Write the structure tokens for this entry.
Amino acid sequence: MPGREVGLLVLQTAPRWGVERTGAAVALVSLQGVGKTFSGRTGAWEAVRDFSLDLAEGEFFCLLGTSGCGKTTVLNMVAGFEAPTAGSILLDGAPVEGPGADRGVVFQGHDSLYDWLTALDNIGFGLRLRGMGRAERRDKAEHFLRMVGLNGQGAKHPSELSGGMKQRIQIARALANDPRMLLMDEPFGALDAMTRAVLQGELSRIWAETKKTVLFITHDIEEACALATRIGVMRRGPGGTLKAIVPVDLPFPRERTSDAFMRVFRDVHGLIHDEIHGAH
Ligand SMILES: Nc1ncnc2c1ncn2[C@@H]1O[C@H](COP(=O)(O)OP(=O)(O)OP(=O)(O)O)[C@@H](O)[C@H]1O
Ligand SMILES: [Mg+2]
């Protein structure tokens, strides 16, 4: 593997093209030398440069980095909302050419819920588009409503739900389409600390239950340490890229005050601290 192992850390010293394949199995998602340069009225801006990463089926990968380093840009390219300007992104070996039902996206804000639909109908929206009948749709939506802990709240409209409840509905809606993976861009960023901790616990349980592959973006180190099987730390832009990958080999549910958790936190904190304070 190109990269240098330093204790728990694997420092990125070379492009990771085609690495991290287990046996003959191809990664679920493979980003190979991906770059993104935006051209706008103020000229060109290289947001992401030479970003290479393989995500294995079933893993929970947290992408962590300072504001503006390119996290959302990477997620948008995997989601198919933006096309890379360099390199390629493969999903199950085929190039990503646009959004698809195989990738469920959960956004930070909750404005992506449809105000005029009930919580249950929001969850079943994608199923309706796919032509599923009313009764089956309702059963499925109820199932995912229960999974996110909102049993009995399905008749409420988004304006009658708290921020945390809306994020739960977004997660249920994404899961209802049975995607191969979940793409989550700071989904709990706007929530208070207590609600956030509760939802992190819920998401961890749901991930273990559904075995979905998750790409989760955050700038909260503790959140990443609580959720991830691996944490990718990004170097700040311009030309944001992957700086290091920290494997988090701790059992779930995670004990946040344990020495082992603190050790991972300190490693990741050190990597991020260098980004904020300029040491590369
Ligand atoms: N559509 C766009 N046009 C021009 N520049 C863009 C566009 N989208 C993002 N950028 C620039 O690319 C860089 C990376 O942005 P991005 O949103 O990916 O950062 P981020 O890591 O998600 O930050 P945050 O943590 O604040 O959400 C920023 O400098 C941003 O200004
Ligand atoms: Mg962002």
In short: Helices lie at 71-79, 119-123, 125-129, 134-147, 163-176, 193-210, 221-227, 259-277.
